[in-house]
Amino acid sequence: MPARPLCHIDGLEEGSARGFALDRRGRDTMFLVKHEGSVYGWRNDCPHWPGSPMAWRRDGYLNRDASRIVCSGHGAEFEIRTGRCTLGPCLGSSLSPVELKIDAQGWILAALDVDTPVPPRD
Ligand code: FES
């Protein structure tokens, strides 16, 4: 699976998230979170309702204090490091990780099969 460049690590602020529409359909396929100096990649696909996008606004994947990923659908909260749901209707289930690499120049690359887009929400 080819690695796709997303952004430079210096372009992602600590405690922030950013979505990427890699399938070019206008909706985020995945998002990054920079948390405590590390970068995590997750599919934009809530395990409560598979196929449901999560952000409440552009890049709005985190709660107020940026300590958890939150789904705008029904308020599920997820650990940033593990993707495990710790609060809400999908308690115990997990987000789908996106494998990331950071190259020698600091570009974040994602290994993601974009031929499997996030299905549209009904
Ligand atoms: S769709 Fe995400 S919590 Fe229900």
TrEMBL record:
PANTHER family: PTHR40261, RIESKE DOMAIN-CONTAINING PROTEIN. Residues 4-108 form the Rieske domain. It comes from Variovorax ureilyticus. SUPFAM superfamilies: ISP domain. It comes from the Bacteria. This is Rieske 2Fe-2S domain-containing protein. CDD domains: Rieske (cd03467). PROSITE patterns: RIESKE. Keywords: 2Fe-2S, Iron, Iron-sulfur, Metal-binding.
